[in-house]
Every structure is written in structure tokens, then in C-alpha cells.
């Protein structure tokens, strides 16, 4: 019987709890079952994540060198990240009207989302291609976070008073 284990791989994800997976492959426990990578769903012996990440950095580095990453992927990236921010704000604030969440949401945005953006804009050698796109995304994402948070609070007040 093959058991799926959560292996941490060298790719970053924004999971439902908002934690960012950190680099390095480690298994949760050392039993005799076959381990399956949570990133590529392959057995740990044939994990493809390292190759995928290498190719990803090669392509993004080439696009960064051509100043084409933003114009080719910017709107898709914004849509994906906005959806993730919307979901995280809803998950964090739903049913919890009495406690403020803005500080923890800002921390999450910086650590997880902006951290993921830095990975995207990192050249293959490990240097940040340009701070300008990341800083621009950060400002837009902060505005989106504030709008989403405010709307969530307004919706909560409306539900209480209806």
C-alpha cells in the first residue's frame, strides 16, 4: 500500500494555511512505506521538482533579461495572487469579527505572497532580477489586501444587522 506523505520540495507554494514550504526535501517520518512528493505526486525517488524548478528559473531568467516577464505573465500572475489573497482573507476573517486581523494579514502577504514573488523574479544564479516589479506588485497587493479586508468586515457587519 502506497501512502502519500507531504514531502517538502524545493518549490514554494501558498497552501490553505498560508505557510510557505521551505527548500529541502524532508519526510515527516521514517517508516517503510513509499513516499510521494506533494509537489509532483511522484515517488520520492523519481521526484521531478528539482528539474522543474531549474527549468522554471532558466525561463524566468531569460524573460527577465528580455524585460518580458511582466508583460507576458503579469496579468495571469495578478489574477492568481488576487484569488489567493481573497481566499486567505475570507478564511482568516470569517466568523471572527471581534479580533483584528490586519497585522497578521500584512505579515502573511509579505512573508508568503511577496516571498513567492521574489522567487519568481529571482534569476537563475540566485540574484533578484529587479526590485521594481516586486515592489510594484507589493504595493498593488497591499491595496488589494486592504480592499478585500474592508469588504470582508463590511459584509460581516451587514450579516450581523440583518
CA-atom Rg in angstroms: 19 Å
End-to-end separation: 52 Å
Q: How many extended strands?
A: 0
Give the overall silhouette. globular
Strand content: under 5%
Based on secondary structure, the structural category is: mainly alpha
Flag low-confidence runs: 1-32
Number of helical regions: 4
Query: Mean pLDDT, nearest integer?
Result: 75
* Largest sheet features: none
The helix-strand sequence is HHHH
Helix percent reads: 55-70%
Task: Write structural notes for this entry.
By secondary structure, the protein is mostly helical. It has a domain at 54-160. It contains four helices and no strands. Helix 2 (69-93) runs parallel beside helix 4 (131-160) and helix 3 (102-120) packs antiparallel against helix 4.
Summarize the structure.
The chain has 162 residues and is mainly α. It has four helices and no strands. The chain is globular, with a radius of gyration of 19 Å.
Key terms for this structure?
0% strand, globular, 56% helix, mainly alpha, 162 residues, disordered N terminus
